[in-house]
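Give me the fold.
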Amino acid sequence: MKSPFIYQVVFFAIVCTTTFFSEKALAQTRYLDNVFTDATVTSDVVYGINVSVLTGLPGGPFALKMDVYEPSGDTETNRPVVIVMHTGNFLPAVYNGSPTGSKTDNAVVELCEQFTRRGYVAIAMAYRLGWDPLNTVEAIRTGSIMNAAYRAVQDAHTCVRYLRMDVTLNGNTFGIDTSKFVIGGIGTGGYVSLGFDAFDDYAELQFLKFMDFTDPFNPVPYIDTALSGDFNGEWTRPMNTPSHVGYSNNANMIFNIGGAMGDSSWMAAGDLPIISFHCINDPNAPYHYGAVIVPTTGGFVLNASGGHSVVWNANNLGNNDAFATETYTDCFSERADLINDGIKGLFPFQTPPPGSTTCSDGAGETEQGSPWDWWDEAAYIATATNIGKDGDLENCHALLSNPNMSEYKAKYYADTIVGYLLPRMYKVLFGTYIDGVCYVDIYGAEGPSKVTIYPNPSADIIKISAEDLLRTIALYDISGRLIYEKTDIGAKMFMLSNTRIIPGMYFAQITTDHGQATTKIIFK
């Protein structure tokens, strides 16, 4: 019997969202499953005061702020912390040529809310901005952005120390576990997260590419610790005012979504595990090793190591052994393993090639580097116009590197990021391996509804559960032949057994009260 369904398995960033279950049951597992529905947000918590170049040299005081996301109604008081740092090219939004660049960016908020729904305390952390991207002298561009990154790394350490200080002196305001910290960043924040642990040796400041050869007879490091202080920001110096000195800077894991590391040779055995998400054709930050480009001008800054190089090195050093020794079979891992050259912990994004869209000044589409971003176009146009720019043109430029920008699209990327990250993060923090589970969307007039398939692949039983009542499940082989059908289910969960089913790949057509979808399943 043939079916009219189309063989269509929609994949990953614009496809597959995730939920997780314990190995023995479909019960929810905190820190993996969505166990909360809402977040309580405490905004603009000041975690330190430091010197900012944006307030004029030699610098003025600047309040370092964070937004704290906690699960609403949670009674747990000993929760892991995930810090998320925003993108923005170390400049404020609009001035950096994009609608993003703050702790309230939609992508940051979405990730923090996703972590919070799993039970984590999530921190949207702002850091000091400021450098000189328009300078025509390459050495000044390179030096100023290196110092901007250095200051942001100091701020990340300050944030970690603040949270530990709060536990000791303020009675643990946010109910955190001081032994469990994960540091992550998006875009520019990815540079900061990758520098948080690896950028820690003063010899690294004297690599040739980090030296200013303006005077070839007296080259000097771009970063002057006599002026800027130490990596952790604990020394009092003209450009650094330390906070919470004496509290630990330690963390457990790093992740980056875009961005790069100044040089993968910064890494050493014993550094923190790293998970990396990176668009393969990112035009501004290299996926392998290559040039970092100023988005607003196209100017070269320095050569750096992208996600492919960084995670490859982390694996070879044994730093990712805490999770890389496990075999994950969920759809996110399956997708990543198809295109990540066998580098466990690396999720590459393959985005469509640039289209033919142009703006009024003739600028055309570029490769996508941050498809997880979305913004309010009207608000961005108004903001750009208010500071004297052509708002419509600025918005058009932003869309050139993120065509088809929408909340819907961006959230699928966020789902993919969290879906790939969480089981590995859980293994690092808790030492327990639990594989991920994917689900498919069924689309109806009210929007998408989720159907979960777990485990997949399976050697015996696949559990199918839905947000709505399941009605029918039909199983087809790869030739389109119907080999199994169950009708009138009338429940939200169904156990599909491999009895009399030959091991192999099949397509399951699932119908609920919401609609119908087709997805791939595998019996081993």
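Residues 1-27 have pLDDT under 50 and may be disordered.
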